Amino acid sequence: MTATAGPARPLPRRPAVRLTGLGFGAAQGGNLYHATSDETFHAAVQAAWDNGIRYFDTAPHYGLGLSERRLGAALRTRPRDSYVLSTKVGRLLVPSPQTAHRRDPEGFDVPADLRREWDFSRDGVLRSLEASLQRTGLDRIDIVYLHDPDEHWEQAAKHAVPALTELRDQGVIGAVGAGMNQSALLTRFVRETDVDLVMCAGRYTLLEQGAMDDLLPAASDGGVGVVIAGVYNSGLLARDQPPADAMYNYAPAPAELIDRARRIAAVCEAHGVRLPAAALAFVRSHPAVVSTVVGLRTPVEVGETRQRAAAVVPEALWTALRAAGLLRSPDDRG
C-alpha cells in the first residue's frame, strides 16, 4: 500500500480487521446532492485502490441502495480478503410505488421508489444486513454500524447490538460499530455496549473538538477504535478559503463559523499549509483514530485527497492555532 492511504491499523479489540488510514466514503456513489454516473464512480474506486485505500464504507441510506450496488460492483472482481467493507443497519428500504415519480427527499438524486423505515430490532437488523449482501453481491460485510440511532437508544442497545455481536462471535461479520453525527450517545455505546469501533462524523475536526470531552477518552480507555468522518464539516473546511456560501452540518454555515474557519485558514496559510490538508492531518494524528473516511465521487477528488494526505504539516501550525484560541490543547477535556 502507498503512504497516501497510510499503514493499515488493526482494531484494538478485533486485530483481524485492519483499516487503512484513509477510507473511501461512498455516499456520493448514491448520488448525494447530484447525479454521478456508474463509470465515474467506478473510476473513483479504481483511483482509490491505486492509491492504496482498502477500506470502503457505504449504507442502504445512501441513494436508497444505489451506493451499495455500485460499490459492490466496483469491488466484486477484487480479492475479497484484500479490503475491508462496512455498511450500516437501522433503516430498512421498503417499496414505495406511490412516490416513485418523485425524487428522494433526503438529499440523494434518485427516484423515491423506496422509503426508509427505522428499525433497530433484531429482525430488522438481520433483514437489513441480508438486503445489503444482495445489493453488493458480496459474500460478507466486514463491519456493520448502527446508523444514526439518535432516537432509538433502547432498541439499538438492547436488540441491535446483541444481534450483531452474535453474528460477530460466529464469524459472520468482523466487527460491530455505531455511526453518528454526535459524540455523547456514541460514548454511551462505547461504555455500555460491546461495540468494537465507532464512526464519529463532524464532532472531531479542525473546526470543533467536542469529542475530546467524552468520546475520545472513553474510546481510548476502552480499547474501542474511532473512525472519523465529516472531516471537512460538510464542506466548510474543504477549500483553502471558506466561501460565504459554505455548508456546515449539511446546511448553510452560520456566519460566526465561517469567520472562525477563515481565521484558521489564515494561520494555515501563514505556515504554508492549505486548510483542507491541515483538517485531514489534524484528525489523523489522534491515537484513538484508526481511520478517516472521506466522501469521494470522482478520480479528481481522489487525487486531491491524495495530495492533502501527503502534505507535510509542521508542529508549529498546531502551536499557532492553539495560541490564537482556534484549537484546543490535546490534554483539554473541557
Explain briefly what this protein structure is.
The chain is of the alpha/beta class and 334 residues long.
Shape: globular
> Considering DSSP H and I runs of 4 or more, what fraction of the residues is helical?
25-40%
Query: Mean of residue pLDDT?
Result: 96
Spans of at least 5 consecutive residues whose pLDDT stays below 50 are none
Q: Structural class given helices, strands, pairing? A: alpha/beta
> Which radius of gyration do the C-alpha atoms yield?
19 Å
What's the end-to-end separation, in Å? 38 Å
The proportion of residues in beta strands is: 15-25%
Characterize the biggest β-sheet: 8 strands, parallel, barrel
Number of strands: 14
Count the helices. How many?
Answer: 10
Question: What would you say this structure looks like, in words?
Answer:
- Helix 8 (275-284) crosses helix 9 (299-310).
- The protein is α/β, with parallel strands linked by helices.
- The chain contains ten helices and 14 strands.
- Strand 12 and strand 13 (251-252) form a beta hairpin.
- The model has no long low-confidence stretch (mean pLDDT 96).
- It has an eight-stranded parallel β-barrel, surrounded by five helices.
Give me the secondary-structure topology.
Layout: E1 9-10, E2 18-19, E3 22-25, H1 38-50, E4 55-57, H2 66-75, E5 84-89, E6 91-95, E7 114-118, H3 122-136, E8 143-147, H4 153-169, E9 175-180, H5 184-192, E10 197-201, H6 215-222, E11 225-229, E12 247-248, E13 251-252, H7 255-270, H8 275-284, E14 289-295, H9 299-310, H10 315-323
Parallel strand pairs: 3-4, 3-14, 4-5, 5-8, 8-9, 9-10, 10-11, 11-14
Antiparallel strand pairs: 1-2, 6-7, 12-13
Helix pairs in contact: 1-2, 1-9, 3-4, 5-6, 8-9
